[in-house]
């Protein structure tokens, strides 16, 4: 699979982290040996594991696409934290706090077809982030993933040793600091990645105008991060985009309406050029989160036409379900830009969360979130009309995105045994 190319094999990288992940490695080696022995191949010794195991493991990794799998109801291990206890859970995603009663959406585990996800270990994550910065950059979907990460690690540290600088929605920058680790988990608001008139989170301009070649103003906020997690998608979806060459202030700026797909490509190229020139390849790990699906058309999953995700309580079970909210052409643009960037020496891992999130029509906040603008009477009379089917409740789907991120940061998923018996 393209999305796993160029990564260290689980076997090779586990070897590389032998000191840090001793226990896990031993478990993984044991599993790998059993696994290989079953294939009637000699178990690799520690010395040759990285070399002779490579082709084999490489093939196996190709088979193990973490993003291909199914949801399993698991109310023993999930949720991974209690939403009502996470102080940093912002009101946009706090479905339980805002009165949602069916909480089944919190209890689903993602099970890849060919391997198991490692369990999220908050202490290990904080150790990995010691003296480091991870920055999530993008729109409110990415902010949801940032909040999820903060809630996931928060339970592992005493509350008097954390800091949250600036409050959600008020500023472009949000910083969570775990003091005793000197670890910084940050979010930076740049919904279109490049500069735009939507960069002020308090008053994004509905008449969207994008400075398609300008990213410096944003990039200085994340230029020396150790791990970067980007997303941008939904803000490009609505219509054609007004593109500006020149600055917002300058009277000589040139404005032109550009088709959204083309504008998206231009913006991602600006982003990738910045990355090529500025990213320290030996220091920074890079991720791009694929588009987050929306659930506004119930007829697409066999529901009643005219309805949306409001009052849904179960995931979609139809394999490979794909709704009209997720634009394949835009995903291909991301793929192409990131492939080109890899050819130029910068590797960005795509967290391909689209398919797995497609299944989760029941996991959006709908009406159970803070309403920033008071609702009108006719809206209150018809809750479906203001249901949020864009974002995700927390605890919930973005926790799994972070488990996938975690798996890629530690590269420690293991072959699944049962399927080979
Ligand atoms: C992501 O997964 C979907 C379906 O599983 C696939 O169609 C798509 O090509 C993948 N995209 C990338 C960038 O890997
Ligand atoms: C988990 O779900 C099962 C089946 O729905 C139920 O019987 C059980 O009580 C639940 N356990 C918890 C801890 O919620
Ligand atoms: C979590 O990680 C820490 C630090 O690496 C380790 O000491 C601990 O044993 C791990 N916990 C579990 C349950 O694996
Ligand atoms: C704390 O972390 C920052 C990165 O977030 C790093 O630049 C700084 O050197 C660290 N401080 C110490 C004392 O290691
Ligand atoms: C890139 O990062 C490495 C590892 O942190 C560091 O040693 C090196 O000096 C950095 N290079 C530049 C050009 O900043």
TrEMBL record:
It is a single-pass membrane protein. It holds the Pfam family PC-Esterase. It comes from the Eukaryota. One of its GO terms (cellular component) is Golgi apparatus. InterPro entries: TBL (IPR029962), TBL_C (IPR026057), TBL_N (IPR025846). Keywords: Membrane, Signal-anchor, Transmembrane, Transmembrane helix. Residues 63-116 form the Trichome birefringence-like N-terminal domain. Residues 117-407 form the Trichome birefringence-like C-terminal domain. It is found in: Membrane. GO terms for molecular function: O-acetyltransferase activity. The chain crosses the membrane at residues 20-37. The keyword Glycoprotein does not apply. Belongs to the PC-esterase family. TBL subfamily. This is Protein trichome birefringence-like 34. It comes from Punica granatum.
